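Homework help board

Subject: predicted structure for assignment chain

Our instructor gave us this sequence and asked us to write out the predicted structure in token form, then describe one feature. I got the tokens but I'm not sure how to describe them. Can anyone check?
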Amino acid sequence: MTERPPKTRAQVSRDQGAAPRPADHPKGPSQAPRDLRIERAMKLVKHASVTGVKLSARTWARHPTHTWQGHPITHDRALLLVGGFAGSTGFYDLLARSYEAAGARRVAVMPPVDNAFADIRVSAERLASMVRLLGGDVDIIGHSEGGLVARWYVHELGGDEVVRHVITVGTPNRGLPVRIEDYPWLERSATARRLNKVVDAVANRTVLPMASVALRQMLRGSEFMETLGGPRVPEGRTEYLAIRSRWDGVVPFSSADLEPGPNVANVSLRGGPRTANHAAIASTNVEAFEASMTFVRRP
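My token output:
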């Protein structure tokens, strides 16, 4: 008899009669079916995004390794980097070299599933496989979408048994805001509400059908974000650090934190748009590197 894989916590909750979650797209009209033009446009967008990330990676490759002046790492846990949307392993080479130079004994970068355009839950399964290969306890640093991959693994796939620390860097822990209701100050404007209806209608016919599964899952109010619990993380042995920047430019500052708790810390980076943007905080930003090192070096 073929052995069935264990159910995730989300599946168990649904079997016990939990209320159904909304679909993995913002509330509104159902998505229009994809036609050939949308498929072609989606391929072009994906290709442009991945190319941009790879070009950035070449720039970071020439950057000197970060220097760590703090206490050395004394444990032997593996350190696993999980990249973000449209990502590639080369983008995180600078961080990987820096952690190794700081004393991390085993550093690995998870190869993204379809450049992280795929279902985040599928990416979390790959993360689980990598953790098993590395063996023992691990620390995970997730940039952007990678932070949600790490959180899903810990919350839903039993990763809390082996993950000591999770660090999210520029991660939309509260979901990417997509509706006018997410901006109370804007919703008060009648003109903004009328304009939003037009933009929302156009987006549901064009932009959302082109969006990848992962992007729709990251939107505030999606089934994925509701199941994950938004910015709430469970108490336990896994400790969390959320690093965010007001100059991120991709993930809003107000979306990148986690709800305070006994096992949660939040760090806000200084700097400007050149040194603390979405790419820099996962590569050249010294403050982000030092904050993450201070966290993962702990026993």
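Reply (TA_rk): Your tokens look well-formed. For the description, you could write something like this. Residues 81 and 109 are 5 Å apart (CA to CA). That's the kind of observation they're looking for.
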